[in-house]
Amino acid sequence: MAQYASILFGMILVNNFVLVKFLGICPFLGVSKNIDSAAGMGAAVTVVMLLAVAVTWPLQQLLVQCGLEYLQTIAFILVIATLVQLLEMVLRRFVPSLHASLGVYLPLITTNCAVLGVAILTIDEGYTYPQTLVAALGAGLGFLLAMVIFNGVRTRVEEANPPEAFRGMPITLISAAFTAMSFMGFSGVVDHLFGA
Question: pLDDT value at position 194?
Answer without folding.
Answer: 67
